[in-house]
Structures are given as C-alpha cells and as structure tokens.
Specification:
244 residues; 4-stranded antiparallel beta sheet; 6-stranded mixed beta sheet; globular; alpha/beta; 2 domains
C-alpha cells in the first residue's frame, strides 16, 4: 500500500457559532491526486487554510511526513513542504514572470538569490507553458497565464504537497484540457496534490481519490466513480434525496 504522506485527524474550525470544519479526518498518500469536493460553503477552502497554516485549528492534528505541522504559522508550514494557489490570484504585478517564480524559489530554506535561480525558474515556466513569456510583466499576462504563473511560483518551492484551490475555475474548454495536462505533468514529477474543484470532468480525469464535504463534515471518501454516485453526495449537490 502506498505510504501516507499527510494525515488530518479530527480537524475542527469554528467562526463564532458557525462550525466550518467539523472533526474531519483523512489521509493523503504520497504521489496521489486527492480531490476535495462538495457544494459551496461545505468547508473545503477552510480545510485548505488549515492545512496551509493560514488558519489555526480549534482541535485536531495535521501531520506531514510523520511530523505535526498544525499549530505552525503559514510561512513555517510552507518551509516544511506545503505550497498552494488561491482562488484570488496573488501575483507581484510589477515584477516579471521570471522574478515572480524566483520569489517562490527564494522562499525555500537556505536559498540565496542568484543567477542559478533565474536559470532554474525556466524549468518551472516550461512545465506550465510560460517559458516564452519569461520577461513579461505579470500584470500584462492574460488571466489563464496569470494562473499558470501562480502555479509555477508554487512549484518553485519544490513542495511535498501542492494545494490547488479551484485552479481550473474560469477556464474555457481548450484551457481546461491544457490545465489538466499541466496538473498531470506536475504529479509525474512526484508532487502530491490536493485539489478543491467544481469541474467534475477534471475530478474524474485527474483524481485517484476524493473526500466529499457538506456543511463542514466529511460525508464520503473513495474513488471519483464511487463517491459521485453515492446517494448522500448526490443529495448534497442537488439538495434533494436521490432515488435510484
């Protein structure tokens, strides 16, 4: 059986009286793509924020490679090997494409800014299909290319686990196919991926397993084919009981 790389145990997070994540537990295996899916407001992004250290947990534990990372600030979680993209793009717009990637690389422990980093940034830009735009200002890129750049910057941190928060959202059908191929290429390099996504064709195409959330709780876990035909999951998405 494939080794467990990340483990969530009883993760809980409340905002006032609203319990956004309610005692959620799951394992992520090394080298897999795990889908985190569910209707809007189900707690998916909050779970990503707990994993990345953006939010502290009220209760529970998160482990990476056997080491507890819950309770660490986001910058330390990143240095331990967790990188992410965001629903809202966070680029340094007056920097070039290359400079944005080098910023991600410079964040790695013990790394000094040098010409070798600039050369290596090209590898990450190649993976996401931006090598020909290395010298452009980030602000002048199209929306899809800005998303590619954010992904390249996350990859430059050489993460053990990459968190993709609706990275495929807003893409047309051609861009979507390209995006799926990019995610496959990243996994082929050995990176483990957790993706929050509403594009079900991508979930079917990419994910080895899925965790389904609703109202803060995990309601199903398994392969995409299994969970997306689960009556509880169908009810959560459609808002009505499913009858076979």
């Amino acid at each position: 059986m494939t080794e467990v790389l990340m483990r969530l145990e009883g993760a809980r997070k409340a905002f006032g009286g609203l319990v956004a994540v309610n005692d959620v537990s799951f394992d992520v295996r090394r080298g897999e793509i795990m889908g985190l899916i569910g209707p809007n407001g189900s707690g998916k992004t909050t779970t990503m924020n707990l994993i990345s250290g953006a939010f502290g947990m009220d209760r529970g534990r998160i482990e990476l490679d056997g080491e507890t990372i819950s309770g660490l600030p986001a910058n330390r979680v990143a240095r331990k090997g967790v990188a992410r993209t965001f629903q809202l793009l966070r680029l340094i717009e007056d920097m070039t494409v290359t400079e944005n990637v080098v910023v991600g690389m410079a964040f790695r422990p013990g790394q000094r800014w040098n010409e070798e980093m600039v050369a290596r940034s090209r590898d990450y830009l190649e993976i996401v299909g931006l090598a020909d735009k290395a010298g452009m200002e980030a602000a002048k890129l199209t929306y899809i290319d800005q998303k590619r750049l954010e992904l390249a910057r996350a990859l430059a941190m050489e993460p053990k686990v990459l968190l993709l928060d609706e990275w495929l959202a807003g893409l047309n059908s051609t861009e979507l196919l390209s995006g799926i191929e990019i995610i496959r290429a990243i996994r082929a390099r050995g990176t483990t991926i957790i993706m929050v996504e509403h594009v079900m064709s991508a979930i079917h195409s990419l994910c080895d397993r899925c965790v389904v959330m609703n109202a803060g709780a995990k309601i199903a876990e398994g392969t995409p084919a299994t969970v997306l035909t689960d009556p509880l999951v169908v009810e959560a998405y459609l808002g009505e009981p499913h009858h076979a």
